[in-house]
Amino acid sequence: MATKVLSQQYQQIEHTVYNDDTEKSEIQKFFFGQTIFVTGGTGFLGKLLIEKLLRVCYDINKIYVLVRTKKGKKENDRFSEIFDAECFEPLKKKYPNFLQKVQLVNGDCLKPDVGLSPESKKMIMDEVTTIFHVAATVRFDQHLRSATYINVRSVRDLLRMAKQMPQLKGFLHVSTAYSQCPKDDIMEQFYSPPITGEHLLNVVESLKDETITKITPILLGNWPNSYVFTKAIAESVIEEEGRGLPVAMIRPAIVTTSAKEPVPGWIDNIYGVNGVTAGAGLGILRTMPADPDKYAELVPVDFVINIMIAAVWNRAIGMSKEHQNKTIPVYNYVLSSWQILTWSKFFDLAYKYGIECPTTKAIWHFCFALRPNPIMHELAHFFLHTIPAYLMDLILLCIGRKAIAVEGYKKVKKFLNVIAYFAKRNWNFGSENTQQLLSTLSQKDKELFGFDLRGHSIDNLIKQGIIGGRIYLLKDPLETIPEGRKKFLKLKIAHYIVCGFALYFLIRIALLVFKSMF
Question: Does the model's pTM come out above 0.90?
Answer without folding.
Answer: yes
